[in-house]
Amino acid sequence: MNGLGTMIFPLVIIGGMMFFMTRSQKKQQNQRQELLNNMKAGDEIVTIGGLYGVVHEVNTDKGTVVIDCEGIYLEFERNAIKTVKEGTTATPAPVQETEVVEEVETTIVEEEKENQ
């Protein structure tokens, strides 16, 4: 009986360790899947290869993501995304083209007066 007790105790310990390890792996897989499911256009991402970019389009049918990397658009599998950071959807400041046009017109008119 004593030999059986010394054998059961390590088996229980190993079984408990395996249970907790698989539980934490499953939890990490669920978090990753949720991260990929919530990915949307405008989010900043990093691929598993270390490429930084912004999500341009998510195609759930094909399971792909189109990434904008400084004007270059690349298509990746969704599983190739390592991290996702919600992007800021800040609108750029409007360009004041009227002032530039007025300055150019004024310069042209002044040059024409000088030439006459």
Automatic annotation (TrEMBL):
<keyword id="KW-0811">Translocation</keyword>
<comment type="similarity">
    <text>Belongs to the YajC family.</text>
</comment>
<dbReference type="InterPro" id="IPR003849">
    <property type="entry name" value="Preprotein_translocase_YajC"/>
</dbReference>
<dbReference type="GO" id="GO:0015031">
    <property type="term" value="P:protein transport"/>
</dbReference>
<keyword id="KW-1003">Cell membrane</keyword>
<protein>
    <submittedName>
        <fullName>Preprotein translocase subunit YajC</fullName>
    </submittedName>
</protein>
<dbReference type="Pfam" id="PF02699">
    <property type="entry name" value="YajC"/>
</dbReference>
<keyword id="KW-0653">Protein transport</keyword>
<keyword id="KW-1133">Transmembrane helix</keyword>
<feature type="transmembrane region" description="Helical">
    <location>
        <begin position="6"/>
        <end position="22"/>
    </location>
</feature>
<keyword id="KW-0472">Membrane</keyword>
<keyword id="KW-0813">Transport</keyword>
<dbReference type="GO" id="GO:0005886">
    <property type="term" value="C:plasma membrane"/>
</dbReference>
<keyword id="KW-0812">Transmembrane</keyword>
